[in-house]
Write a structure and sequence with these properties.
Number of strands: 7
Radius of gyration: 17 Å
Order of helices and strands: EHEHEHEHEHEHHHEH
Oligomer: single chain
Shape: globular
Bound molecules: nicotinamide-adenine-dinucleotide
CATH topology: Rossmann fold
């Protein structure tokens, strides 16, 4: 019960990795806020947690909208008090276009959520921690591709590189107030984030992650030869958010089966 009665906000927790994080932190006693753009998915996850006897609240949030972030912090703190832990997980993928083909509106769309939205959310939570004197923890979610972008990730990879860097700048600004900021970079986890790429590459839904794993194993680029799970990413987020990581800040932890090293 590392998070007993802690107030935890997780963005993008309606599906995939965010859902896994919400379940784990709630199972360990946290009072979790599911901040998701999609209401149906967000309410479903909040319901799943409550059914198990946990504490969860869904708040509809589009992290690319400043007013939504302000409302989120207001409603979440009204419900559960000062923020103890913030997990910035919401992100979108892009069309499968190379850096040369990428339209600037696509760049803006991806950056609005993945970089600007994530930063705005983390900074707002950090400000609440400062205002309330909370020695909290913030965890961002980037990706393996932030450090070794592939040809078809013209906006996504740079937007996530920005996440790794603002994690460090925010960590520096918040350290004097006893607030830690770290990043987790997953490798391949089979989630809905690949839907768009699958559609554009005319691949069957749910097959892109398998293909990526197969190719990477074949090329000796994935040391643990399988996809990761949402639970494995959640375990790393929970560690960094917990007191067990009390001497760790401004770090990026790769959770990718050794792919970062080899890609
Ligand atoms: N799945 C992977 O292989 C993988 C690899 C590396 C990094 N990641 C990262 O993990 C995180 C979670 O992704 P996932 O794989 O679970 O995908 P996902 O698509 O299942 O989850 C993303 C969630 O974010 C929500 N969201 C999107 N835009 C939003 C917005 N503007 N405001 C609020 N919520 C919004 C979506 O509704 C969705 O529930 C992302 O940051 C992603 O970049 C995933």
């Amino acid at each position: 019960m590392r998070f007993k009665d802690k107030h935890i906000i997780i963005t993008g927790a309606g599906t995939g990795i965010g859902r896994g994080i919400a379940h784990l932190l709630a199972d360990e006693g946290g009072r979790v806020v599911i901040a998701n753009r999609n209401r149906e998915n967000g309410e479903r996850v909040a319901g799943e947690i409550k059914e198990k006897g946990g504490t969860a609240l869904y708040i509809q949030t589009d992290v690319s909208q400043d007013k939504d972030i302000a409302c989120l912090i207001q409603q979440a703190t009204d419900a559960f008090g000062p923020v103890d832990v913030a997990v910035s997980n919401a992100a979108i993928s892009e069309s499968a276009s190379s850096a040369l083909e990428l339209g600037m509106e696509e760049w803006d769309r991806v950056f609005a959520v993945n970089a600007r939205g994530s930063f705005a959310f983390c900074r707002a939570c950090g400000q609440n921690m400062v205002d309330c004197g909370t020695h909290g923890s913030i965890v961002t979610v980037a990706t393996l591709m932030a450090r070794s972008g592939k040809g078809m990730s013209g906006a996504y990879a740079p937007s996530k590189a920005a996440v790794i860097m603002f994690t460090k700048t925010l960590a520096k600004s918040l350290a004097p107030m006893g607030i830690r900021v770290n990043c987790v970079s997953p490798g391949v986890v089979a989630t809905d984030i690949y839907n768009r790429v699958e559609d554009e590459m005319m691949m069957e839904r749910g097959t892109f992650a398998d293909w990526l794993v197969e190719e990477s194993v074949k090329n000796g680029q994935l040391l643990i030869p399988r996809a990761g799970t949402a639970e494995e990413i959640a375990a790393a987020v929970a560690f960094l958010a917990s007191d067990a990581a009390s001497y760790i800040t401004a770090q990026n932890l790769s959770v990718d089966g050794g792919m970062d090293w080899c890609w």
